[in-house]
Amino acid sequence: MAVVLPLSAFAQTATQVAERRAALERDLVALEAEIAVQQQLLDAKRTERVSLERDVAILDAQIEKARLQIRARTLAIEKLSGEIGTKRQVIGALGEKLERERQSLAQILRRTNEIDEVSVVEVAFGTRNVSAFFEDLDAFTSVKAALSDSFDEIETTRVVTEEEKAALETRHAEEVELRTLQELEKRKIETQEAEKQRILNATKGQEAAYQKLVSDKEKTAAQIRAELFTLRDSAAIPFGTALDLAEKAERATGVRAALTLAVLKQETRLGEYIGTGTWIPDMHPTRDRPVFVYIMKTLGLDPDRMPVSKKPSYGWGGAMGPSQFIPSTWVCYGGFVNTNTNGCSNKPQSMSWNGFWQGPWEYVVAKDRIRKLIGGNDPSNPWTNEDAFMATALLMSDNGADKKTRAAERLAALRYFAGWNNAEKSAYAFYGDAVMEFADFFQKQIDILGS
Which domains does the chain have, with CATH numbers? Predict the structure, then answer.
């Protein structure tokens, strides 16, 4: 005899949520289609000859695409919030049912104990009807078994639902993170609007005036060398120095210098408050802190004095230096191996990840990929600009950027930001687009310098 879960308390709400979710999904599909149209326009316009009309159209498309992406993210967050609310209602109802089941089971157990206490003598001498006694016993045994099965089923459902809620809340945190990042996209829109207005004001809509403006701009190559390229957690580097480091990394890894510059430029813009954290409160306690201690010991640095990224409202901080590698990623590039496994990420199935990151760790010169390419005798240092540039190019190369196609470079940038599993999710597209825009800008400056 199983107790049926009453759904009337939240059936109407669940239906409304399902309808709202379907509407949101339709809106998202429509928005993503509009975003794709804007991207096609951008791609087409970039192939045209430089002109006032073309460049204004590119700015218009970039502005509209950014606005659409922000709207799409808002809808996705609303959709997930509704799903989380429904899960919470289901969990609450299951908890109430579980309590009722426990009370029913306790009553049956007490009644069963009463039956068990009836003696054979009482039955034999007629104080109890034998037939009724065994009927009661069979009935109670059957009910008890049914309730036990129901109890197990509800407990399993409760655990599964809790896991689903946790997964949804994690996803929601990711969406909020992206929304936060896209607030910076609004600033980008404002900048693009200002640039568009500046162009129109300077040329008053005249193509000849615009061509002269472009020509004058290209004659300022000497000024480019003095342009400051601000890197996260480091002093500003003159553009010429940054370009030298990026070109050295290109010769070693095959990743375009403009792309390495673009990734670091994007990381800087997104790291407005990064670099003011400290390792104990801001780093992941089991994944990064143990590794960080070994890195600091090898480099002879005081972990309490080294700046790392501050823990945001979501997730963990602890990223190091201009390239913003977290310690558990740096070990694979900076020459560290887990002495139990002789590797940086090859955890055996028998070991938990927490146990793996505990080490012990050892610096092995032959495993220091950055040092191999740069040369020298010291271990690679994530706070050293040259090491940071080479590390970024190496990771981008591992991500497929050395193929040098636009699609491969964009995907590599997304993997740099979101990892391989999340790189092709539409939610993260804005990062890849922004990196490629920066890469186009830097490539143009490099070409001017080359000529």
Answer: 11-203 (1.10.287), 222-450 (no CATH)
